[in-house]
Amino acid sequence: MRQPATPATPSTQAQHDRYQRMLQMGTAMLANGGEDALQMKELAERAVVSLATLYRYFPSKDHLLLAITRSRYESALRRVAGEQPRGDTVRERVTGHLLREFRAEQRDQRLTAALVRVATDTRPEYQPVIADIQQLHLRVLEHVATAGGPVDAGLRRRLLIVLDVFGAATGRWLAGVSSAAEARFEIRVGCYLLGDIGKEEAA
């Protein structure tokens, strides 16, 4: 049986620059035309890299989509780390953050659809990256919930459930099963699991 290809990891500054350029161009192509518009040959041309270089870092389109997803959550974690928390309680902060995240998904629905599809793929070779993405999303919510403070096991368990609710609400909206308003309602209801923990209790 043929072994799945292993994506290369950039090590030098020049490689990192090319890698980021490929991610940026790929994201733009997805946002403009959806997954069908993301053609690897055209992406290589737009990113000014050879097709061989592109495939070395992203052996398939799904590898590229996973890398884009991980990069977006890494950026989100850096962003929330530099922001003042909005809201007086854990529930207010997490609800506000997830509703803003959902609004961003609405603005780029074609991009969201592609990234959600690959992030829920069950192929074994994708699971380490998907686990990294899920952990990054959780870390973003933990930082938002506690304003950068410590997170106890009980809160972490509840945040994991809230993330499941958020993912399910997004999936139903993408599938056309529920409206955006219904998805927002589901997100708010899921966040009620967090209760009214104040900043002083969460810290």
Automatic annotation (TrEMBL):
<dbReference type="GO" id="GO:0000976">
    <property type="term" value="F:transcription cis-regulatory region binding"/>
</dbReference>
<dbReference type="InterPro" id="IPR001647">
    <property type="entry name" value="HTH_TetR"/>
</dbReference>
<keyword id="KW-0238">DNA-binding</keyword>
<dbReference type="Pfam" id="PF00440">
    <property type="entry name" value="TetR_N"/>
</dbReference>
<dbReference type="InterPro" id="IPR041642">
    <property type="entry name" value="KstR_C"/>
</dbReference>
<protein>
    <submittedName>
        <fullName>TetR/AcrR family transcriptional regulator</fullName>
    </submittedName>
</protein>
<feature type="domain" description="HTH tetR-type">
    <location>
        <begin position="16"/>
        <end position="76"/>
    </location>
</feature>
<dbReference type="InterPro" id="IPR050109">
    <property type="entry name" value="HTH-type_TetR-like_transc_reg"/>
</dbReference>
<dbReference type="Pfam" id="PF17925">
    <property type="entry name" value="TetR_C_20"/>
</dbReference>
<dbReference type="InterPro" id="IPR009057">
    <property type="entry name" value="Homeodomain-like_sf"/>
</dbReference>
<feature type="DNA-binding region" description="H-T-H motif">
    <location>
        <begin position="39"/>
        <end position="58"/>
    </location>
</feature>
<dbReference type="GO" id="GO:0003700">
    <property type="term" value="F:DNA-binding transcription factor activity"/>
</dbReference>
